[in-house]
Write a structure and sequence with these properties.
heterodimer, A: mainly alpha, 3 helices, about 65% helix, B: mainly alpha
């Protein structure tokens, strides 16, 4: 699992692209569920998502 | 019942100018916002959106109905915007200084006035976004603007950019990665 970075959240590499699509509501069905399940147990990925919400206009 | 876009296109192709004017009315606000996202200048955005409508009008014969008029037109608009960026010789720093200082973004019009602190933060964030966006490669910037600012689906963006949905996803991811590196300090 990835570690936090001081300047920006670091998500798990294999989930990073999906997290961006998840943020934009572009994942459906199983993909969305998989990210939901992962994010529930992964603090860095939760932090990454929260960061996207904060910084994207 | 109002005619659909494609009905208006059919009428316009038969010389009904009012039908095309109606299409312009329907889409001009969104067109302006997209153009503004690229140009970040009100007058330029107005010119670019008008140029896109003019180009659409003169090429109506090429609209084959395989996509919606909306998709077809916005592809033209994005191309007009990208051409504009290519033509522009000045650096972003120069154009940024000239256009951003007293600028109110369209999304801020008619909203409750923000507090002074919010204005400062929004201004800083807006500048950061502008600078970070400008530094992106054109395809990443296009994918990001169409997704983040215009709310189009990956499928629609892929149609507009005439590329695969997977490619759009990669552009979007790379754009977000680059932007968040720049903007993280505002989180």
């Amino acid at each position: 699992m990835a570690q936090h970075d001081k300047s920006a959240a670091v998500a798990c590499r294999q989930f990073e692209e999906d997290l961006v699509l998840y943020y934009y509501g572009e994942l459906g069905g199983g993909e969305r569920t998989a990210v939901d399940d992962h994010v529930r147990g992964c603090e860095p990925c939760r932090f990454y998502l929260k960061e996207l919400e904060s910084i994207l206009p | 019942m109002q005619p659909g876009d494609e009905d208006l296109v059919a009428l316009a192709r038969n010389g009904d100018h009012r039908a095309f004017e109606e299409l312009v009315e329907r889409h001009k606000q969104k067109a302006y916002r997209i153009a503004f996202d690229f140009a970040r200048d009100r007058e330029e955005a107005k010119d670019l959106s008008q140029e896109a409508f003019l180009r659409a009008y003169t090429h109506l014969g090429n609209f084959d109905g395989r996509s919606s008029f909306y998709t077809w037109f916005y592809r033209i608009l994005v191309n007009v915007c990208l051409d504009y960026k290519r033509r522009k010789k000045r650096t972003f720093a120069e154009e940024f200084n000239e256009t951003i200082e007293n600028q109110v973004e369209p999304s801020q019009v008619s909203q409750k006035p923000p507090s002074p602190d919010q204005q400062v933060l929004a201004g800083q964030l807006s500048r950061k976004v502008g600078i970070a966006l400008e530094a992106l490669p054109p395809k990443q910037r296009t994918a990001f603007i169409l997704k983040n600012n215009q709310g189009l689906s990956i499928k629609e963006i892929a149609e507009m950019m005439q590329t695969a949905e997977g490619t759009v996803k990669v552009h979007l991811h790379r754009a977000v990665t680059a932007l968040r590196q720049t903007l993280a300090e505002f989180a």
